[in-house]
Amino acid sequence: MAVSPRILLVDDEPDLLDLMELALVKLGLETDRAASVSEARSRLARNRYSLCLTDMRLGDGDGLDVIASANALPNPVPVAVITAYGNAGNAVAALKAGAFDYLAKPVALDQLRALVKSALHVPSPATPPPADPSRTLIGDSPAMCDVRARIAKLARTQAPVHVSGESGSGKELAARLIHQLGNRADRPFVAVNCGAIPETLMESEFFGYRKGAFTGADHDRDGFFQAAAGGTLFLDEVADLPLAMQVKLLRVLQEKKVRKVGATAEEALDVRIMSATHQNLGTLVESGRFRQDLYYRLNVIDLAMPSLRERAHDIPMLARALLDKLGGGATLAPDAEAALCAYAFPGNVRELENILERALALCDGQRIAASDLNIAPQPSADSPPNSKYPLQDYLDQMERAAILEALEQTRHNKTAAARVLGVTFRSLRYRLERLGIE
Q1: What digits encode the pLDDT tens for the residues 324-335?
Q2: Enclosing domain of residue 190
Q3: Per-residue pLDDT tens for 57-102?
Q4: Where among 68, 84, 119 does a domain terminate?
Q5: Which residues contact residue 48 at a Cβ distance below 8 angstroms, ignoring those fewer than 6 apart?
Q6: How far apart are CA 407 and CA 341, in angstroms?
Q7: pTM of the predicted protein model
Q8: What is the three-class DSSP state of 26?
């Protein structure tokens, strides 16, 4: 006979304990109670729990103490904290301390049930991962080993993750891997490029709309949040969100509810949020271009993706894997491998793939030589770092970096990239050919 999952409820308010216990029993779950941190520690040490729900404020401590005790067990127990309404600081502190998720008072039973169902599917450390990080994020450099280890930990929590790093460094790849290794792997992963949505359409695109909400709304439509229900919403280039939209997104993250344009009622939200940008969010906060409260909500845990320059040791392995992906069975000649390892790669892994794809078309036979790579010349050895001489090499580097950044922002839509750069499409096409950018 199957044993029902057991939940530990920790709170010094008997009425709230009664309410949660009643809701969980209706789901067919077993519950235990604790009214203090010390009692919670005792029960955690004696019994095996699938989840612990704890209030943030307790008579002899707080929810952070319960989180620490649950995480220190040989088989860590996921902990969700209950915070006072509107107290974003406590929620963020709990998530940073390792909490699985949080609920705000007054506890909404639909959100409680969604949280519990999500927590009961958290993969245990002994469960074989559904994806192999070494096949997705290739490289055995210390930087990549650290990234993969951190991703494995992030997959076991629902905390918002902000992925930082240069354009082309694999930010979306890392976010997808966190999703695939977590308990939401069988649910949608919805990636949204925040810089590619017109400001006038943002609210309806993110939240959806009701029929008749505005001219042309001839039917109900779901937004990105509804499309990602039960799964993960990845906000790429989140720094490009206008301030008005930042306010609305902050409210959704705080309330865990979303209201379609033209609707009168809100819908409970069960979506994990991840975000990324190649810009420095902290700097944008200081300049007033990004809200500080939203920054703290999104940047609960930061995952920094290293540039290809920082892991040059991985370039040969990565190049071979990309050539296998591109097909054709081509290999790199020693001089080509040396040229790739010496190159700075302002466009990172994406640029490496573009260079190899072009080289496959140019090479004779199955062996790629250095001359087939068509890599832009690097600054001479006698030039100081970041030298502006020779001038044309410096200008080419700056132009290449600006074009790659614009292409990244627009998901390689060349018409949109030309608009971002303030040049004509024909001018951009000429520059792409001159610089050897595919």
Answers
A1: 988 878 899 999
A2: 133-304
A3: 888 888 999 999 999 998 889 999 988 755 667 888 888 888 888 8
A4: 119
A5: 6, 75
A6: 24
A7: 0.74
A8: coil
